[in-house]
Design brief:
Layout: H1 27-71, H2 82-87, H3 101-111, H4 124-131, H5 137-151, E1 155-164, E2 167-176, H6 180-190, H7 198-207, H8 215-230, H9 232-238, H10 240-264
Antiparallel strand pairs: 1-2
Length: 265
């Protein structure tokens, strides 16, 4: 960037740099030499002065160009913009040109070709309805069922024998089919012989000590067995939607009450 600090100015002693001492001579010869030397010095000073003026003018022009590039607001509107041409003022008068709605309509009419008198108003509701893809109800139902089945793991029932209070109890448990516990149960069943040699399996099971179960686990197992026998889980699943709706209604009412109390304060 050009600044005045970069300008090369002459020094104070530059005008005397061409001074040359001479030996004493006669008056006529000395006057002639001094006059000739003065003419040469004046011509050189005039040339240097012109150079300094040109350099200063060039530097000033560069400074103006840099200032315009630095502080000029960049235009974000194209000069050929349609509405910009409409809002331009009329140079022949002080009244602003095209300042009314009728003039805008006339301007649009002059610059647009109207082939037919068809109504060009766009109904957004109709346009949105035409853009929507109306899904097939049957396919949508299948997709919803597939999503529900994907989210709910498939469960199977396994039987385990435990020892509690000196007695053997068989407990049914519901586990996920892809769980590790079910895989261990299947592997243990595959190790049995079966068939005509099933008595060997019974003998081995008698030799193996059944694992003990605590009172808390036994009560939990009895409760699960009772729910399966009475179908309590099935009834809860059937009424889960109503319970969720009731909870949401209570939460909405609570939020409304809090807002009313906040406004009163």
């Amino acid at each position: 960037m050009a600044t005045i600090l970069t300008m090369q100015l002459p020094s104070d002693d530059e005008c005397d740099s061409d001074y040359v001492t001479s030996e004493h001579s006669s008056d006529d010869e000395g006057n002639t030499k001094r006059g000739k030397r003065k003419i040469d010095i004046d011509a050189e000073l005039s040339s240097r002065r012109r150079t300094w003026i040109n350099n200063a003018s060039t530097l000033f022009e560069h400074m103006l160009q840099d200032s315009e590039l630095t502080y000029r607001h960049r235009s974000t509107v194209d000069k050929s913009d349609y509405m910009l041409q409409f809002h331009k003022k009329d140079a022949s008068s002080t009244v602003r040109k095209n300042g009314k709605l009728s003039e805008l309509e006339r301007y649009i009419t002059l610059n647009c070709s109207r082939i037919s008198n068809e109504n060009k108003c766009l109904n957004l509701r109709t346009f949105k309805a035409s853009c929507r893809n109306i899904p097939d109800s049957d396919k949508l139902k299948q997709i919803q069922e597939a999503v529900l089945l994907q989210g709910i793991p498939e469960k199977v029932t396994i039987t385990k024998t435990y020892r509690f209070a000196g007695k053997m109890h068989t407990i049914k448990e519901h586990v996920a089919k892809m769980s590790r516990r079910y895989k261990q149960y299947v592997m243990s069943k595959q190790q049995t012989i079966g068939g005509s040699l099933a008595f060997i399996d019974d003998a081995v099971s008698e030799l193996d000590k059944a694992p003990k179960i605590s009172a808390i686990k036994k009560s939990e197992a009895d409760w699960h067995q009772y729910k399966d026998d009475e179908g309590i889980d099935i009834n809860q699943e059937a009424h889960k939607f109503l319970k969720n709706e009731e909870f949401l209604d209570r939460a909405t009412m609570k939020e409304h009450t809090v807002n009313i109390n906040a406004r009163k304060q």
